[in-house]
Amino acid sequence: MKSGIHDAGFSKTQGIGRTGERVEKSWSAIRGSGDWVIGRFVDRQSVLVAAHLGQVDAVYRPESRILNAESRSPNHPITRSPDPAGFTLFEVLLSITLTGLVMLALLIGIRVANRAWRTGEARLRLVHSEAERNAFVVQQISSLVPYRVTSNDPNLPGTFTVLQANAGCLRFVSSYSSVYRSRTGLVLVEYGIVNAARGNLEVALRETPVADNDILYHMLVLKVLADPDTGLPVIHYQPFSLRPTDLLLMTGLSDAWFEYLDLHPPESKAPIWRLDWPGTDEKPYPAAIRLRWRRGVQAGESIMPVRAKFEPPATTTRE
């Protein structure tokens, strides 16, 4: 009997001890929380009092990190944080903005470099095309062949050398062609300066194989009239008009014309450039041909030597 009462009393005492331990732990937790709240309150009040007295220049704001040099210390009550490795929202937004600016600058640099590369490539292609064009024209004019045609037509009588040379048109027979290179024979070469859209000028090239003299004669000659002063026949050539099959050598020109070099002009002792080459028995061909042009503020010229030395016995003058 006594043993049962003793066991019951011991159990009650043990239960009361455990309850006391739980109450003590709860009270310790509440007291710790109270101490933290009181500490935070005391810290805030200390900062407010210090700011009021002028000892610090910033008010305690947990959401802000924009403080003076002293308050940036990790041990300062304003900046201390339970997670010192974290970032504020302002720092994240600032890093995103800076990254965006760097990416934008990089994109602009890539676009500028790409545009400069394309512009340089276009200019290089233009320079190469102009060099090839000049080389071809020089080669073709240098290959000028003295060619003489006699007409059997009573309406267009006469014998003349195939060479029309004035400021706007140049016609001759050559052994060098851009289209009929695989053929053997001669081609009639025609360079014409024609009007284009918007008031610009273009230099066009036309090549025709020489097959029959009568066809060539009627292709070039419009009419033959006698000069009232000298009585010699004067040849009037067919006008040059642009065709869809013609090759455009130069476009977008504001002005262009041909000139012909006379080494021994009768009116001067020095060589001169003429806008029209009449052609005589003594001088059937000019010494050189010059093409001058203007495109906006740019200007240029190409000089092509004439190597033909044959002097046919021409009895007509050309116009």
Provide a descriptive summary of the structure in words.
The protein is of the alpha+beta class and 319 residues long. The model is unreliable at 1-13, 55-67 and 311-319 (pLDDT under 50). A 5-stranded antiparallel β-sheet has the order 3-4-5-6-9, covered by helices on one side. It is elongated and about 145 Å long. The protein has 2 domains: 2-80; 143-318, no CATH class. It is built from 3 helices and 14 strands.
Concise synopsis of the structure shown:
The chain is an alpha+beta fold and 319 residues long.
SSE blueprint and pairings:
Blueprint: H1 2-53, H2 89-142, E1 148-151, E2 158-161, E3 163-165, E4 169-174, E5 187-195, E6 201-209, H3 213-220, E7 221-226, E8 233-237, E9 247-253, E10 255-262, E11 272-274, E12 288-295, E13 298-305, E14 317-318
Which features does this protein show?
3 helices, five-stranded antiparallel beta sheet, elongated, 319 residues, alpha+beta, 14 strands, disordered N terminus, disordered C terminus, four-stranded antiparallel beta sheet, 2 domains
**Biggest sheet architecture:** 5 strands, antiparallel
Strand order of the largest sheet: 3-4-5-6-9
Q: Rg, please?
A: 51 Å
How many strand units?
14
- Averaged pLDDT: 75
- Which structural category fits the helices and strands? alpha+beta
Number of domains: 2
* Helix/strand order, N-terminal first: HHEEEEEEHEEEEEEEE
Global geometry? elongated
Count the helices. How many? 3
Residue windows where pLDDT falls under 50 for at least 5 positions: 1-13, 55-67, 311-319
Strand content: 25-35%
